[in-house]
Specification:
429 residues; alpha+beta; GMP Synthetase, Chain A, domain 3; 5-stranded mixed beta barrel; 4-stranded antiparallel beta sheet; 37% helix; elongated
Length: 429
C-alpha cells in the first residue's frame, strides 16, 4: 500500500515537472541568479498564466520550486494553474514595475500541480474558443458595441475571464447574467486595448521578429505622429501602423535620440542669404550634422551641402546684415569622391574563384596560338578581298610587307615571259 502511494506521488511530481506550456510570452531573464546574495531564500514567486497574465504569490509551504514548474495557486474562488517564471530577489523589482499598487497580502502557492489538476485545466482550456464564439453572438444579440477578443478559464474551471474591446463605456450587466446562465461559471469582464489584444494573440512584425507587445512589452505608451516627423519618416499610414491598426510602438524607441540631435541643428525655417541667392532648407542628416540647401522652396535647385557649424556662422552674419559670397567656406575643399569598399578583414573578393577560372581558360600558350590563328585568318580575308577589287597592293612588288608564295607553275610562266621579252628586243635591233 505504501509503495503504491509513493509511486503515485513520484508520478504526480514527474508529470508536473515535465509539463510545460507552449506560450513563451514575456519571458524574464534572472540576471541576479549568479550572485551570492541571490542564493538566500525568498518566498516570493512570479507565476504566469495564459498569454501575458502574471501574478505574484508567496511560497508559504516552502516548496522546492524551480523555474518552469507547474503549480496550483490560490484564487477566488478555488485555485488556478500557472507556471513559475521567476524566483528570488528579482521578483520584488518586477512587482514594483508591473504591479505598483499590488495587494499587501499576497496569495499563496498551494502545491505543485498534480495530473488531475492538469487534466481539469486542459478540459477547461479546450472550451475557451467555443465559449468566445458563443459570447460574441450573445453580445451581438443584446446590441452591445463591444468585441470579445479572448476568454480564459481558471485552472479549476469555476471561473471565466472575458477580455473585451470597446471604444465607449459599455453597460454589460445584462450580458453577465446571460453568460452566467449559459456557461454555469462565475463571470469576470476585463477591458483591454487593441495593443493588449495584439499582445495576447501574437504574431510576426514587418521587421521579421516577434511582436514587441507579445514578447517583452507590458506597459504601453501613447505614440504620436510627431515621433515619425522627428525621424524624417514618411507619413504613410500603411507603413506606420502595426497589426493592431495603431501607430507602431517602435516609433518611440529612438525618438529621444533624434530630439536631442535636432537641438544642435539650425531651424528648418531659417533662410541663408548670400550675395547671389537665398537658400532654403531642403534636407538634413542630423547625426552627420550635414544640411542641404536649395535656391527654390518647391524643387531641388542648385543644391549645396554644408555642415551645421557653417550654417550657424551664416545665420549670425545675416543677422548683422552681412551676406557672404557663397555658402561654402573659402578653405573648404570639394567633397572627395566616395571611396570604394575595402575589405578590412583581409579576404579576397567574392569573385576571386571566377577570375582564376577565366585566367586558366584563356591564358598560356593556347591563348597565344589562338591569337596567331585569328591574325592569319584576317590576313587571308584581306588578301582575298583586295584581289577581287583589283587593288594594286595585292602585287608583292608594290607591297613589300606582303610576301607571295610561288609555286613551280608560276616559275615556268615567269621564265617564258622573260624569253619572249628577250626575243622582242632582238627583233627590234
Amino acid at each position: 500500500m505504501d509503495n503504491s502511494i509513493n509511486e503515485n506521488i513520484e508520478k504526480s511530481e514527474f508529470d508536473a515537472r515535465d509539463y510545460r506550456r507552449k506560450e513563451t510570452k514575456l519571458e524574464v531573464y534572472d540576471w541576479l541568479k549568479d550572485l551570492p546574495e541571490a542564493q538566500q531564500e525568498n518566498d516570493l514567486v512570479e507565476v504566469r498564466f495564459k498569454n501575458t497574465r502574471k501574478g505574484y504569490y508567496r511560497n508559504t509551504a516552502h516548496l522546492k520550486l524551480e523555474v518552469g514548474d507547474i503549480v496550483a495557486v490560490e484564487a477566488s474562488p478555488g485555485h488556478d494553474i500557472g507556471e513559475v517564471t521567476l524566483m528570488g530577489h528579482l521578483v520584488p523589482l518586477q512587482m514594483r514595475k508591473h504591479a505598483p499598487k499590488h495587494e499587501v497580502e499576497l496569495k499563496r502557492v498551494y502545491r505543485k500541480a498534480k495530473p488531475n489538476d492538469i487534466e481539469k485545466y486542459e478540459e477547461a482550456k479546450a472550451r475557451e474558443h467555443s465559449t468566445m464564439i458563443r459570447a460574441r453572438k450573445i453580445a451581438e444579440d443584446l446590441g452591445l458595441n463591444m468585441k470579445i477578443g479572448d476568454v480564459e478559464y481558471q485552472g479549476d474551471g469555476n471561473k471565466a475571464i472575458f477580455y473585451y474591446i470597446a471604444d465607449d463605456r459599455v453597460d454589460f450587466r445584462q450580458l453577465i447574467k446571460v453568460l452566467a446562465d449559459v456557461f454555469k461559471v462565475r463571470i469576470e469582464m476585463k477591458q483591454i486595448g487593441v495593443r493588449q489584444e495584439a499582445g495576447r494573440i501574437g504574431g510576426i512584425g514587418p521587421c521579421g521578429r516577434e511582436l514587441c507587445c507579445a514578447g517583452w512589452m507590458s506597459n504601453f505608451v501613447s505614440v504620436a505622429t510627431s515621433a515619425a516627423r522627428y525621424q524624417d519618416i514618411s507619413l504613410n499610414p500603411q507603413k506606420l501602423a502595426g497589426q493592431c491598426a495603431k501607430l507602431k510602438c517602435c516609433l518611440n524607441f529612438e525618438v529621444d535620440a533624434y530630439v536631442e540631435a535636432r537641438k544642435k541643428m539650425p531651424s528648418k525655417e531659417m533662410e541663408l542669404e548670400t550675395k547671389d541667392n537665398v537658400y532654403y532648407f531642403f534636407k538634413s542628416d542630423i547625426f552627420a550634422r550635414k544640411i542641404t540647401y536649395s535656391t527654390d522652396k518647391a524643387i531641388p535647385a542648385n543644391l549645396v551641402t554644408i555642415d551645421a557649424g557653417r550654417a550657424f556662422e551664416i545665420i549670425a552674419l545675416n543677422r548683422r546684415g552681412i551676406k557672404p559670397d557663397k555658402l561654402e567656406r573659402d578653405d573648404q575643399q570639394r567633397e572627395s569622391p566616395r571611396k570604394e569598399y575595402q575589405d578590412v578583414v583581409g579576404q579576397d573578393s567574392l569573385t576571386r574563384f571566377d577570375n582564376k577560372k577565366r585566367k586558366k581558360k584563356g591564358g598560356g600558350n593556347n591563348a597565344q596560338a589562338n591569337n596567331n590563328n585569328r591574325n592569319e585568318r584576317r590576313r587571308g580575308n584581306n588578301n582575298h578581298a583586295s584581289g577581287n577589287n583589283g587593288n594594286a597592293n595585292n602585287n608583292p612588288n608594290n607591297n613589300p610587307q606582303k610576301k607571295r608564295r610561288f609555286t613551280p607553275s608560276n616559275n615556268n610562266n615567269n621564265n617564258e615571259g622573260r624569253q619572249n621579252n628577250e626575243n622582242k628586243s632582238k627583233a627590234e635591233e
